[in-house]
């Protein structure tokens, strides 16, 4: 139980860091042509009404995934302190939270990828996904790993029986 829980804590913490970095940076798309430009999820210039709907969906689900990831990390940390958590419940709650974070992130990344992929290309400008975009996908995989490891930690935990009474 202990190694699974420790690796789950590391994986969910790393996933949360990757997600927060991806969410806060603006290197999701790089456009090259006569000059180079990059953009992210947070528009600059005060034109909030011109932001496309898929950006709002991606922002919302990324924030939701960050909150779920924070809950997963919190309950895994609390599972190390026996007086603050019910025996065996910390990994179970973190399993559900990590899978919810992975699902939220998967929805956000799938919406963003499909909308950017289906946009009509401009022959004079080439656009590429950049490192913030890839960090979003990495955080999805890390949350899936954290959920699986938390589930393994929960399933391998000793069950209370008559011996503990």
UniProtKB/TrEMBL annotation:
The chain crosses the membrane at residues 53-80, 92-113, 133-153. It comes from the Eukaryota. It is a multi-pass membrane protein. The keyword Transmembrane helix applies. It is found in: Cell membrane; Cytolytic granule membrane. Coiled coil: none annotated. Its main location: membrane. InterPro entries: PMP-22/EMP/MP20-like, PMP22/EMP/MP20/Claudin. Keywords: Cell membrane, Cytolysis, Inflammatory response, Lysosome, Membrane, Signal, Transmembrane, Transmembrane helix. Residues 1-24 form the signal peptide. GO terms for cellular component: cytolytic granule membrane; plasma membrane. GO terms for biological process: defense response to protozoan; inflammatory response; killing of cells of another organism. Belongs to the PMP-22/EMP/MP20 family. Regulates cytotoxic granule exocytosis in effector lymphocytes, thus acting as a critical mediator of inflammation in a broad range of infectious and non-infectious diseases. Essential for cytotoxic degranulation of natural killer (NK) cells and CD8(+) T-cells and for the activation of CD4(+) T-cells following infection. Plays a critical role in CD8(+) T-cell and NK cell-mediated cytolysis of target cells and contributes to the cytolytic activity via the perforin/granzyme pathway by enhancing exocytosis of LAMP1-carrying lytic granules. This is Protein NKG7. It comes from Cavia porcellus (Guinea pig).
């Amino acid at each position: 139980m202990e190694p699974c829980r420790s690796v789950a804590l590391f994986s969910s913490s790393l996933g949360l860091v990757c997600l927060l970095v991806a969410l806060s940076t603006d290197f999701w798309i790089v456009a090259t042509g006569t000059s180079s430009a990059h953009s992210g999820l947070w528009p600059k210039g005060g034109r909030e009404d011109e932001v496309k709907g898929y950006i709002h969906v991606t922002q919302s689900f990324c924030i939701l995934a960050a909150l779920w990831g924070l809950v997963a990390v919190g309950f895994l940390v609390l599972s190390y302190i026996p007086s603050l958590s019910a025996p065996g419940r910390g990994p179970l709650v973190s399993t559900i939270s990590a899978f919810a974070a992975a699902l939220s992130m998967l929805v956000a990344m799938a919406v963003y990828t499909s909308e950017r992929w289906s946009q009509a290309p401009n022959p004079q400008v080439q656009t590429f996904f950049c490192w913030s975009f890839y960090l979003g996908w990495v955080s999805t995989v890390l949350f899936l790993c954290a959920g699986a490891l938390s589930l393994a930690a929960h399933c391998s935990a000793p069950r209370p029986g008559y011996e503990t009474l």
